[in-house]
Amino acid sequence: MAPLNQAIRVERRVDSDCVYTGTVDEEWSVGVVPNGGYILALIIQACITHQSTTTLPSPLHVSAHYLQPTQPAPFEVHIRIIKPGRNFINIHAELMQAGRTCVLTHLIFGNVPPRVGLGPLVPVNSGFARPYPLSAFHPSSVNLPGGLTALPPGYQFEDQMHWAEDPAIRVLNHTPHANGGFARWGAWIELTDKDTVITTASLALIADTTLSMGFLYPTHVTGAVEGDTWLPTLTLSIEYKAPIPASGRYSKRTVGVYVRSGYLSEPQGRHNTIVEIWTAPADIGDGGEVRKGWADEQVCLAVATQMG
Asked: Considering only CA atoms, which of 215, 223, 153 is closest in space to residue 184?
């Protein structure tokens, strides 16, 4: 069991330039199955390592299809360049265990300078920009531990991560017509190990560690059995919108997430979930000063979509 930065570590296999190895950490599981976002983080980390010495080191888009459950055991990521280019490169990567292909991914890499994206192309004060989606509760003002929300049952990494939910968003899920047919959820999500920082690869775990409509809507609406609302991830896509800022005005281990989840359908109550991942101005409950206009300073780091 290891903090996230250590748990997604990979190494290049000595006899191949395109195969990376590691071990799936059992702690980053839901029940006995490793979290799908954690598994995708392993693949992304392998591809980032592979591209780190090239002119196109930055992941722009990732699309994953989960074919078989993974196990807490050694793995290999096999990388193949599909289409190289001057501005973009398309990569195919497979995570394999014991000779089985468990996850297929297609990734697009480019070159995003570190300071690009620290402000939206559409100015915040224009009235046309995407506003910061959480309500006005600041992470530093959360009371600890009372302001934290327990992770759902079965999350084995509850000691490595905690949440502070946005109550103004969740309460709307029990009011008919309030959300236009979407369940909504917002929270500050924080890695508890103070030496661990959120990275480009680990955003994949964040994207798959949220609540969706199966948890959020009343059971008489979804038809679900209480406590039996988790579904395995079938597909997960991430579009990276901005690099993680290095500025001290942002937390290194906390992000804000905003979730919309809907389109409940057969078979097996499948639904689509959209997750926006934003910077956070401070750690949860740090008691620091709340700057005026802090919400307008936040940056959308990634937008993820999945079918679960």
From this structure: 215
Q: Are 50 and 109 in contact (CB under 8 A)?
A: no
The β-bridge partners of 110 are 58
- For the stretch 69-118, pLDDT in tens is 999 999 999 999 999 999 999 999 999 999 999 999 999 999 988 765 45
The answer to whether the CB of 74 falls within 8 A of the CB of 21 is: yes
Residue 208 dihedral angles phi and psi, to the nearest 5°: -110, 20
Tokens read off for 154: 């079965």
CB of 198 closer than 8 Å to CB of 246? no
User: 3-class SS at 217?
Assistant: coil
Query: 19: phi > 0 → left, psi -120 to 50 → alpha, else beta; which?
Result: beta
The answer to whether the beta carbons of residues 282 and 251 sit under 8 Å apart is yes
d(CA 162, CA 6): 18
pLDDT digits (tens, 9 = 90+) for 27-59: 999 999 999 999 999 999 999 999 999 999 999
pLDDT at 269: 64
Please name which of 263, 265, 273 lies closest in space to residue 308, comparing C-alpha atoms. 273
- Please report the pLDDT score of residue 268 as a whole number: 64
Cα three-residue angle 79-51-119, rounded to 5 degrees: 125
Residue 176 pLDDT grade (very low, low, confident, very high; cuts 50, 70, 90): confident
HEC string of 148-160 equals CECCCCCECCCCC
Q: Is the pLDDT of residue 178 over 60?
A: yes
Distance CA 299, CA 278 (A): 6
Domains of the chain with bracketed CATH:
1-111 (2.40.160.210), 116-308 (3.10.129)
